[in-house]
# Entry
Amino acid sequence: MSEEKRLHPITTVINAAKAIKEAIIPIVILFFVNGGTGNSGSILDYVPILITAGLIILLIFSGVIQWWRFKYWIEEGELRIEQGLFVKKKRYIHFERIQSLNYSEGILHRPFKLVKIKVETAGSSSDLDSEAVLTAITKEEANELNRMISAAKKKLKEKGLDPELTVAEEPEVDDRVLYKMSPKDLIVMATTSGGAGVVLGGVLIFLSQFGELIPYETVFNELIEFVETGFLLAGILIVLVFLIAWLIAVAMTFLRYADFTVRLVDKDIVITRGLLEKKQTTVPLKRIQGIRFDQNIVREPFRYTSVTIESAGGSVLEKDSNAIRLLPMIKENEATPILNEILPDYEWNVDFKGAPSRSIFRYIFWKLFFSLFVIIPVSWFFFPIGLLSLTLIPVSILLGWMQYRTAGYNLSGDQLVMRFRGVSKQIVYMKKKRIQSVTWTETYFQRKGRVATITATIKSAIGGSSTSVEHLDKKDVETMMDWYRPEAVSNPEAREIIGELET
Amino acid sequence: MGSNEPKMRISERALTVWKLYGWISAIITTIIAAGVITLAVLFDWSVWFIVGGVVVPILEIILFVYVFPTLKWRRWRYEVREEEIELQHGIFIVKRTLVPMVRVQHVDTEQGPILRKYRLATISISTAATLHQIPALDIDEADALRDSISALARVAEDDV
# Structure
């Protein structure tokens, strides 16, 4: 596989489509410039259209050139890429540095059995150039590349074995399907994600944008008559609008998450998803920094939760790659067996030690205090409707109380689990060796009440990801600090607790 | 604070530098306040502008030149042990951070013109995810500390 290769010719279409998509706004503007004056028959009227056509042809042409100049090959254990027309750009990526190949398939890929490959390196997150994308290659080539990379990595470990030999003798890799998302879970996810609300909002914005085109007044008058014929019909209409919004949300969720499958391949987690565009994400197990459970307030009563992986490295180019959704929507109790298979060294069922009862007031106080800054002016200036803002009082008390109930931590062996709530309930599982630093903070009032706030930071794709639990008992905070402390623990009481944990 | 708070204090000259910073910002505030007072007199604004123009700079001098630097200096502690670095700082919110030596990726010292004049330097300790700074250490001490931290720091390979 050491000869120079080009990508599949379909790349030209993909490149051009991407370029046109990016330039769509200028193209549209250009097209509509002077659009209204086109009756004089002069050649000048066609100028905007000609420019638009020229631009599109140029973009298509550049897509072809890009494809023509893009070559890749394998040499000396490196993936080498050469591209560029006037400025020739070469990029050599050593196999060892390649962390994973992420596959995705767009609509254009699928008829030709092609994949888009994103090469992810373990490079520093600031280094955007350390990554490479092969826009369209055949699946066989992709698998071949993958095999060579893993063989090269293996060779590095075992030293001395010829990579070609290893490829030939490689035993079947362990490949297990751990989780498949059911359509029911997908529907629950779409329903509880607030996506339907977003769609509804989007429709409203859309309608308001095109206000001039739709004769609202006529529609409105008709609507009034309509409503007068009966509240029942109006009710049905509203339900219908919500139903449509909900259906759109479900459809969008299906597009993104259909066929969501988690597999464990050797020492990597492989996540595939998507209906039209298939995406495959690979997360090496050893890059996992922590696991986060996220439960929004709608899902909480139904015990549905979403599980994300905090992973170091990964792709900087992809926005959501630092928090990889492992199980987007699952019943709490169903998540544990799956996680046990992936990460057997984590303890998933733990008892939390909560905040002391003297903290309840602290959780409530500030929310109440700041809500007064809203309530007082609003009630004053918008009397009497403004008095509705008084509902903020029970809301802040309830939220504070829920935050107090949620706050907690657990130490077991080399694992720290923190549970807290903003509005959504979150639980974060971290291993001691993955925690980059631990900080505790204490305000004057917290010191009086012998409580403190603890923050643990783990690495995520870009910088760090911090988790805090507020107003825990000072003794608990000290125990956590001593648990984390690499040097001999000075406090004998804490030493005892930690001793118990480690045996 | 706890019984085992970090032992080392930062250089006493830090106090001088922080006071200097306080003076610099106080002078700027005073100039702005003088402008406000002049305008207030010229255009017959409310008397409160004049009161504010006098009180604000005085308050700033008291707080940012005398009170806060002293409190800040008194609170600032650090300790570099064989396997860990511990920092403590904060005037109203006391913050204590523990960084294990194995998590440290690199250490830098840096100094601006004012710090250089007072032979001080700031140490920055980076882990894979966080950045911690000890401000205004004596330059020799900072250099020695930087060298010893980088000697002690040995990030365990597969942990990041």
